[in-house]
Amino acid sequence: MLIHICPRLSVPAGPNFPCTLVDIRIKEFNLLLVGGHDVVARQPFPNKRYHVACRRQGQQAVNGLLVYVDGHVPFFTVVTRWSIGSEVLLRHQVDYVVLDDEFEAVTDYVMLWADLTQLCAGMETWTSRVPDFFSKPLGLSSPVMMFDEQSLVGQRVPGQALQLEYCETFRMPTVEPGRLIPRDNDFHRRMPSVEHAFQVKAEAVNHG
């Protein structure tokens, strides 16, 4: 299964917050990606409040990273840690649940769930993969760690890094692997290359 995830950090507009990606851990895959070595944080969107983790490969700011796992994956947990100026440590845990096994890829970038038939006319027929139980599909959003400096007032202890944690569950459908291929349109232009996917062997996967 080809897995596309976009660990994201949102910071307030205005001050230039020194954000550092510490690491990303996927427990079920026994995978630890170290910030500055395996992965880095970049800003692929016009809105520079968003910092997105991607593979440390080249200089282009791409939207997220790819992990290839042998076989179907029903669920997995991603823990991303961010540092704000060495004063605040943010821990973001996302419990991903895969809703079906129709296709061999998943993505938490919900824009890629849409009907892309017209966008990629003449190439593929990609109808909507938005699950029926989402009553307002246009209101869907990808997982994100929100940092609000105002919420820290009165919590900081001199000489100690403040630690904050946010956990969420994210349910996603499978999608056609072709949706994750970089193309020359707004949805796909910043996609990571499949050649740069992190590889996970079947024997490394543990859902126990």
How would you describe this structure to a colleague?
- The chain has strands at residues 2-5, 8-10, 19-26, 31-34, 39-42, 50-55, 65-69, 75-84, 88-98, 105-107, 145-146, 162-172, 174-175, 198-200.
- Helices cover 0% and strands 37% of the residues.
- It has one domain.
- The strands form three sheets. The chain has a five-stranded mixed sheet with strand order 13-10-1-7-14, with no helix packed on it.
- It contains no helices and 14 strands.
- It starts with a strand and ends in an 8-residue tail after the last strand.
- It holds the Pfam family DUF6012.
- This is Quorum threshold expression element, QteE.
Brief descriptors of the model:
208 residues; mainly beta; five-stranded mixed sheet; 14 strands; globular
Radius of gyration: 17 Å
Secondary-structure class: mainly beta
Report the mean per-residue pLDDT as an integer. 88
H and E order: EEEEEEEEEEEEEE
List segments where confidence is low: pLDDT < 50 over at least 5 consecutive residues: none
- The share of residues in helices is under 10%
How many H/I helical runs?
0
For the biggest β-sheet, the strand order reads 13-10-1-7-14
Proportion of residues in β-strands: 35-45%
Largest sheet: 5 strands, mixed
Topology, number of strands: 14
Give the tally of structural domains.
1
